[in-house]
Amino acid sequence: MLHIFIINPFAGDKTFADDLRTKLSSIEGLDYFVFNTRYAGYETELVRKILHIFNGEKLRFYCCGGSGTMRNMLNGFDDFSKVEIAFFPCGLTNDFLKMFGESAQRFEQIEELIYGDVIDIDYIKSNHGVSLNTLSTGLDSNCLKKMDDFRLFRVISKDLPYSIATVYSIFVSKTEEYELTLNGETRTGKFAEIFVGNGSIFGGSLYFAERTCVNDGKAIYSVVGNKRGFGLLKVMLALTGKKYDKYPELMDLGETDRIRFRRVDGQPFSINQDGDIINNVTECEAEIVHKGMRFVVPKGVKAL
Length: 304
Prior knowledge:
Elements: E1 2-7, H1 16-25, E2 32-36, H2 42-53, E3 59-65, H3 67-74, E4 83-89, H4 110-114, E5 117-126, E6 129-131, E7 134-138, H5 139-147, H6 160-172, E8 176-182, E9 185-191, E10 193-197, E11 201-202, E12 206-207, E13 219-224, H7 230-240, H8 247-250, E14 252-256, E15 258-263, E16 269-273, E17 276-281, E18 284-297
Parallel strand pairs: 1-2, 1-3, 3-4
Antiparallel strand pairs: 5-6, 5-18, 7-10, 7-16, 8-9, 8-15, 10-13, 11-12, 13-14, 15-18, 16-17
Helix pairs in contact: 2-3, 5-6
């Protein structure tokens, strides 16, 4: 097997890429190549080139970065059945790995992945690409769009632009009217957030369900109605505080294997796929692909 490491040198600390290369060079018998990303989204192009060059080889791809790096890497594949995917995390949140509970820390040791097991997991396939953990629109996509306005605050803390953008979006962003189809039923209304997740955590600390499974063929959905300001802040505090008993009164929560939504006025909007913003969307349609990805886990680790 050929091991392909795709490193985002801008993720993690300044020595992350060099440290990983040093570690790999010390592992005897490892047949591998290392590639650095050049800019956001380059992972997709890089994967396609690698697949062409090594056509017919048995390949394992390692995402060495954060959730956005993983999402961009995944969108370079046409067929997941022919490759294995590993996630060596160094991003801000890496929310999908939290689905493996206390074992999530083991993913941070590269040897655990090189000598790990392979399990079949679900992923989200949409008409705007693939994501591993979440797809959503509303509050969180507004946050991502506003983050760049507050980028100078990174000199204080790398998390501060996101925090400021979140507060701004809670109290300033408008809700829009959507046509939404879930489990074959269509409804319209003003929604502050439409979320569908293969996992149940995003944004680092927002918990949408007490327990979920990454290979059951179902996604968790959450739909927050026409809330703004303190009403929306109440939702956020409940999600952060894991106050599951409050969820029924604050949002519509359930399971589905597919979702479709568009703005009633036909105007374009933005969606968030695993921390990457996609603009100028006129309609979004997504489904869960049941056990469609061969995912590497540390030996003995099971999906929750």
